[in-house]
Amino acid sequence: MKVSVVWATPLIQDVVSVELPEGATIADAVARSGLAAHHGLVPAALGFAIFGVRAGADAPLAEGDRVELTRALLADAKAARAQRARGSPLAKSERRTKRRNRR
User: Fold this and answer.
1) What share of the chain is helix, strand, coil (3-state, %, to 5)?
2) Fewer beta carbons under 10 A from the terminal one: N or C of the chain?
3) Under 8 Å between Cβ of 35 and 5
């Protein structure tokens, strides 16, 4: 069966098609693709998805599947949003006060 293995970052988009026997797993596809070695990735630190749906390394593959290598999040989405809110230059009430004082 033929599947694609994808590694993408803002600067790199790499897709490799691999031929695997029936019953192959994500781990088999990743090993056959050579993407981890080529990009210096640590397979144990990667996550995986099939067409955007998280899957484990032992998940079986089907003909035409797209295996995506995923990396750990650089920041928790909730924490980043809270940080941006705390770092906002002026809260709404402060902006109103400054506008009134300019008049």
Assistant:
1) 35, 25, 35
2) C
3) yes
